[in-house]
């Protein structure tokens, strides 16, 4: 790019002027502006990712991030409406990277990725600011995941458990209940001392509004922050949104608390970054994504961690969401994120349409570290459940030949069918861990065998109501001891037998 001598003189003059006035601030000039990308000259010492202020001729201030540092110009992504920017407008360095307000004052609020309120509830008065980009905590500061993060969903807490500080991917086609799992998990954190951050990236405003409504309806906004950059926001805001969410979560983690952050969804995040990269003329790679697309998500997800006692014992759990096309989990972005996370919850359209909701494909879903954090009680009951469901999956394809099957295979199939039915759970009805243990225990002990499959939902509901009324103590014992000792088993057996006499 050629710089003409007039422009150079202008820069030098401006520098001399600012020196005389006593404030030394590096300034530059807009050379070109298109599609939200500003090319500027004069910002010789600007740092990568530094925030710069663009002053338009109308006196408006627009912020941007220096992304491309080239020999004779700087490529800047603008963080707002860039329509007012003209060639020749002034840019000023800020010597800072972007920061967001953090802290408990944000709870219950909906903010954009710069921390500005979007909910019309007034200013957020906080003195704490965190940079949106931060190097993930090192290995000496961490400890293994050892505490469960209860989702309140039987199928997850029993079979694909998540631990505090873990990164578990939620992956599936569109409309398979990905957001539903995330919101149910947030709703279940009520009273469990986990602060939640829901980051919405590139979603329709209507979907976001529905999610916020539901969080409010179930009282979850009291401990939740929503960071939103919807589909109509510029790609630059969508790009920084998850980093801002991570920074808000880190505040809680560094202060010894537990936090949960949901990135909904990283597919759109990758697309926003691709848009920015192409406009910045970075070389495109596979599927036109830039070469550092892996780093985009790995540096984000590495920030989720479980700190050890010397660092305050806090944790940040991340649940990123990825949308697949036609169930293809081996596509570029999905495989990247699968390899970064500690497991995935795989949702399937086929199951969803067949009424198995949450539509978790148990065979393809794993949690690589959460098992270590599962309570003893859950571990004991989930063990045989896993085995029965795995056997059921193997035999499932034979169901069409049911007439020719031997007795034991038929029995296995029926049991599997009942367990699958038991794993179903409606939205917005998270269950406490002791309730989950009790119903799964009943299933393991074969009590469901006498109940027709279409009545399993009724059985579960009525049985839990019965337990709460007549066996509160037993439930409390499971919760407190986190185990299911022989004495508790005896009480449960007694409860189930008595309940079956009154079950209609
Ligand atoms: N467990 C469930 N029981 C009943 N309905 C459910 C359940 N989970 C999700 N749904 C319904 O399925 C629909 C899709 O759910 P959701 O919006 O969570 O899916 P998604 O995969 O996040 O979709 P999108 O592709 O729009 O992001 C919603 O209408 C939701 O109410």
From TrEMBL:
Its EC number(s): 7.1.2.2
InterPro entries assigned: ATP_synth_asu-like_sf, ATP_synth_asu_C, ATP_synth_asu_C_sf, ATP_synth_F1_a_nt-bd_dom, ATP_synth_F1_asu, ATPase_a/bsu_AS, ATPase_F1/V1/A1_a/bsu_N, ATPase_F1/V1/A1_a/bsu_N_sf
ATP synthase alpha subunit C-terminal domain ranges (all copies): 374-499
PROSITE patterns reported in the protein's UniProt record: ATPASE_ALPHA_BETA (PS00152)
Keyword Lyase listed: no
GO MF, one annotated term: hydrolase activity
Pfam families found in the cross-reference section: ATP-synt_ab, ATP-synt_ab_C, ATP-synt_ab_N
Membrane topology label: Peripheral membrane protein
Residues holding ATP: 172-179
Keyword rRNA-binding: no
Residues with site note (Required for activity): 365
Domain ATPase F1/V1/A1 complex alpha/beta subunit nucleotide-binding: 152-367
Reaction(s) the record says it catalyses: ATP + H2O + 4 H(+)(in) = ADP + phosphate + 5 H(+)(out)
PANTHER family with a match to the protein in the record: ATP SYNTHASE SUBUNIT ALPHA, MITOCHONDRIAL
Function (record text): Produces ATP from ADP in the presence of a proton gradient across the membrane. The alpha chain is a regulatory subunit.
Name of protein: ATP synthase subunit alpha
Species, as recorded: Petrotoga sibirica DSM 13575
Gene name for this UniProt entry: atpA
């Amino acid at each position: 790019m050629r710089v003409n001598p007039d422009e150079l003189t202008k820069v030098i003059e401006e520098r001399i002027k600012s020196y005389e006035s006593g404030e030394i601030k590096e300034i530059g000039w807009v050379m070109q502006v298109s599609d939200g990308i500003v090319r500027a000259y004069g910002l010789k010492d600007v740092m990568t990712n530094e925030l710069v202020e663009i002053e338009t001729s109308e006196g408006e201030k627009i912020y941007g991030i220096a992304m491309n540092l080239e020999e004779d110009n700087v490529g800047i992504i603008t963080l707002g409406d860039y329509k007012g920017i003209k060639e020749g407008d002034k840019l000023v360095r800020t010597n800072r990277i972007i920061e967001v307000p953090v802290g408990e004052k944000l709870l219950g609020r909906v903010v954009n990725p710069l921390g500005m309120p979007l909910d019309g509830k007034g200013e957020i008065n906080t003195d704490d600011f965190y940079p949106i980009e931060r190097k993930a905590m090192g290995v000496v500061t961490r400890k293994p995941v050892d505490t469960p993060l209860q989702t309140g969903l039987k199928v997850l807490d029993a079979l694909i458990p998540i631990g505090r500080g873990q990164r578990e991917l939620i992956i599936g086609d569109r409309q398979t209940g990905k957001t539903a799992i995330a919101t149910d998990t947030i709703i279940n954190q009520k009273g469990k001392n986990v602060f939640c951050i829901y980051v919405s990236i590139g979603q329709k405003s209507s979907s976001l509004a529905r999610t916020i409504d539901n969080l409010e309806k179930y009282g979850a906004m009291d401990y939740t922050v929503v960071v939103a950059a919807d589909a109509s926001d510029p790609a630059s805001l969508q790009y920084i949104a998850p980093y801002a969410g991570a920074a808000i979560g880190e505040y809680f983690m560094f202060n010894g608390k537990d936090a949960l952050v949901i990135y909904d969804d990283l597919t759109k995040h990758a697309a926003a970054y691709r848009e920015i990269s192409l406009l910045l003329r970075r070389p495109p790679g596979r599927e036109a994504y830039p070469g550092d697309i892996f780093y985009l998500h790995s540096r984000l997800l590495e920030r989720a961690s479980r700190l050890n006692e010397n660092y305050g014992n806090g944790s940040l759990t991340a649940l990123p969401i990825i949308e697949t096309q036609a169930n293809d989990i081996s596509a570029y972005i999905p495989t990247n994120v699968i390899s970064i996370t500690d497991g995935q919850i795989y949702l399937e359209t086929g199951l969803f349409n067949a009424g198995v909701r949450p539509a978790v494909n148990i065979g393809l879903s794993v949690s690589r570290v959460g098992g270590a954090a599962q309570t003893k009680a859950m571990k004991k009951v989930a063990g045989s459940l896993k085995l029965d469901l795995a056997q059921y999956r193997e035999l499932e394809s034979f169901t069409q030949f049911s007439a020719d099957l031997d007795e034991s295979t038929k029995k296995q199939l029926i049991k599997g069918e009942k367990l699958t039915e038991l794993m179903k759970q409606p939205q917005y009805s998270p269950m406490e861990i002791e309730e989950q243990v009790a119903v799964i225990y009943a299933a393991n002990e074969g009590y469901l065998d006498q109940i027709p499959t279409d009545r399993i939902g009724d059985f579960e509901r009525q049985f839990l109501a019965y337990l709460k009324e007549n066996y509160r103590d037993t439930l409390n014992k499971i919760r407190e001891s986190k185990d299911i000792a022989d004495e508790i088993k005896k009480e449960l057996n007694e409860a189930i037998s008595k309940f079956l006499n009154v079950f209609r």
